[in-house]
């Protein structure tokens, strides 16, 4: 029977106000539209606020960022000091930028500050953050270690360490870097450890880092967030682009985050969509940080209807109300499927995840279905010509690509040889490689040389020491 008093008490217990958080944080939470805590927040925030270490199994989209930020921010507010006291370690730049953004939103009504520290951008502003002593740093391990080699980078007053997406750190080979980072921070601290899965090496790392932790939501198999409708479109490899275009043309996909297996395929697909007048962009490991941020911001603002991405870039992409994720290629690992699909239907919104599967990918798809313990429905698009000739082949066959590279290299070598012969073949002046020469007759300049005169002031090594004058070339 419905008991109005009991449900009223229950609702109050489920509210953010039940945690005893600082009123400035509650105000931001309200402004962000978070009406009630997600399950991971309900379980994590109380023990973390009591100062306990945590080990939490939480997938992207569960609200885990606020689950670790809120208790730490609350503690920082209760004992203000002008030094860096919290560090979040994350695997990717995108995730670091996202956490920094979430922190900024949650700290609107507080004096708390944070900075993101990751590679691909200048060290200067990050050095400033160290010197200024921001309250919280969000960092990728490699760039953080670069800073630790400098005298200004000290985190000896650190009180809170958060490790986010630890399993992805393992995948990306960051575990040794994490252990190196640990040598630079105090052992007396509170540690919050988050991972979507807990493979063996992650368990071992957690054991070394945590003291008597509270274990939360320790499921071995994670599942995509609720609210996501998943469907599979069987289609031949060559017709995947046509199918995507058709879904876009028919308005069955409003905007979409589209995952491909490789950077090459991401590039080719984005180019193809652009040629067909769809606003599309791409995000993958070969793109510079400004390019990645522009792509993400453009997708969030609606400038781009399609964002084509590879898995490395998938973590940390947080776009509100994303209606569709398309697995253009079936991911080889079920965890990648869960993370990709977790991009939509975040924090209880609804979304659709479509997976294009060719005959060759059926095996990988079945492995995913076993992992999520669910058979995904197969659907066909009515009136789509499944026997059509592909309008454009997405991938140039591997052998053809290699042949094209070889032909281009041979051409470059021939050009370099002809150029050397035109210069009259002075001794030592005709290197067989096409590297730019430093002699006064050459037009190229070595990187970092500044002046280009061997032996002159410009020939000294740059700060990085990467350039040495090539004395062999001097007559
Ligand atoms: P995360 O798992 O931390 O990447 O969070 C996923 C998304 O859920 C982000 O867009 C958050 O802003 C949002 N979010 C976090 N907590 C809540 C909440 N309690 N209610 C609604 N949305 C939330």
Task: Tell me what you see in this structure.
This protein is α/β, with parallel strands linked by helices and 475 residues long. It folds into 2 domains: 4-216, 3-Layer(aba) Sandwich (Rossmann fold); 228-372, P-loop containing nucleotide triphosphate hydrolases (Rossmann fold, 3-Layer(aba) Sandwich). 39% of the residues lie in helices and 12% in strands. It has helices at 4-13, 23-31, 39-49, 64-78, 93-106, 124-132, 141-148, 166-171, 175-182, 200-209, 240-249, 263-275, 289-301, 311-314, 334-341, 362-372, 398-422, and strands at residues 54-57, 86-89, 114-117, 136-139, 160-163, 190-195, 214-216, 228-234, 256-259, 280-283, 306-309, 324-327, 351-357. The protein has a 7-stranded parallel beta sheet, sandwiched between helices. α13 links the parallel β10 and β11 (306-309). The longest helix is centred in the last third of the chain and has 25 residues, at 398-422. The protein is globular. It binds adenosine monophosphate. Adenosine monophosphate is lined by residues 34, 37-38, 41, 60-66, 318, 320, 346-347.
Briefly characterize the structure:
The chain has 475 residues and is of the alpha/beta class. The protein is built from 17 helices and 13 strands. The chain is globular.
Query: How much helicity do the residues have?
Result: 25-40%
Q: What portion of residues belong to β-strands?
A: 5-15%
Low-confidence stretches: 1-13, 345-349, 426-475
Tell how many strands the DSSP assignment holds. 13
What's the mean pLDDT score?
A: 79
Shape: globular
Number of individual domains: 2
Associated small molecules: adenosine monophosphate
Main sheet overview:
7 strands, parallel
The CATH homologous superfamily of the largest domain is called P-loop containing nucleotide triphosphate hydrolases
Rg value: 27 Å
**CATH class identity of the largest domain:** Alpha Beta
Q: Which fold name fills CATH's third level, the topology of the largest domain?
A: Rossmann fold
What is the second-level CATH architecture of the largest domain?
Answer: 3-Layer(aba) Sandwich
Distance between the termini: 98 Å
Q: Report the total helices.
A: 17
């Amino acid at each position: 029977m419905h008991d109005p008093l009991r449900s009223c008490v229950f609702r109050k217990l489920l509210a953010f106000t039940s945690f005893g958080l600082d009123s400035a944080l509650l105000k931001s939470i309200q402004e962000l539209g978070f009406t009630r805590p997600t399950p991971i927040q309900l379980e994590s925030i109380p023990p973390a606020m009591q100062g306990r270490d945590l080990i939490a199994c939480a997938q992207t989209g569960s609200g885990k960022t606020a689950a670790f930020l809120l208790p730490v921010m609350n503690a920082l507010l209760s004992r203000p000091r002008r030094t860096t006291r919290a560090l979040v370690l994350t695997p990717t730049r995108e995730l670091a930028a996202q956490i920094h953004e979430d922190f900024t939103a949650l700290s609107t009504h507080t004096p708390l500050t944070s900075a993101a520290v990751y590679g691909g951008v200048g060290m200067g502003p990050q050095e400033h953050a160290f010197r200024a002593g921001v309250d919280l740093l969000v960092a990728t391990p490699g760039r953080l270690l670069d800073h630790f080699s400098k005298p200004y980078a000290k985190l000896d007053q650190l009180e809170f360490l958060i490790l986010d997406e630890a399993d992805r750190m393992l995948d990306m080979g960051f575990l040794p870097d994490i252990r190196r980072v640990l040598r630079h921070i105090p052992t007396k601290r509170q540690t919050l450890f988050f991972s979507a899965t807990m493979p063996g090496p992650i368990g071992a790392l957690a054991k070394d880092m945590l003291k008597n932790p509270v274990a939360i939501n320790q499921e071995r198999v994670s599942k995509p967030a609720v609210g996501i409708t998943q469907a599979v479109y069987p289609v031949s490899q060559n017709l995947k682009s046509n199918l995507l275009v058709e879904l876009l043309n028919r308005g069955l996909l409003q905007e979409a985050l589209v995952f491909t297996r490789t950077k090459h395929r991401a590039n080719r697909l984005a180019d193809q969509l652009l040629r067909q007048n769809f606003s599309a962009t791409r995000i993958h490991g070969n793109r510079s940080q400004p390019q990645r941020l522009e792509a993400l911001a453009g997708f969030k603002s609606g400038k781009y209807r399609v964002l084509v991405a590879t898995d490395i870039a998938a973590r940390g992409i947080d776009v509100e109300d994303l209606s569709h994720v398309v697995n253009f290629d079936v991911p080889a690992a079920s965890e990648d499927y869960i993370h990709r699909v977790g991009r939509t239907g975040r924090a209880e919104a609804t979304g659709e995840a479509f997976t294009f599967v060719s005959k060759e990918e059926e095996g990988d798809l079945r492995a995913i279905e076993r992992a999520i313990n669910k058979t995904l429905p197969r659907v066909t698009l009515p009136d789509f010509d499944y026997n059509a000739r592909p309008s454009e082949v997405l991938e140039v066959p591997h052998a053809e690509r290699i042949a094209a590279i070889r032909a281009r290299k041979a051409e470059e070598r021939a050009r370099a040889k002809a150029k050397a012969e035109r210069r009259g073949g002075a001794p030592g002046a005709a290197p067989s490689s096409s590297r730019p020469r430093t002699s006064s007759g050459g037009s190229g300049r070595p990187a970092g040389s500044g002046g280009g005169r061997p032996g002159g002031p410009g020939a000294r090594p740059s700060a990085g020491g990467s350039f040495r004058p090539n004395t062999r070339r001097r007559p």
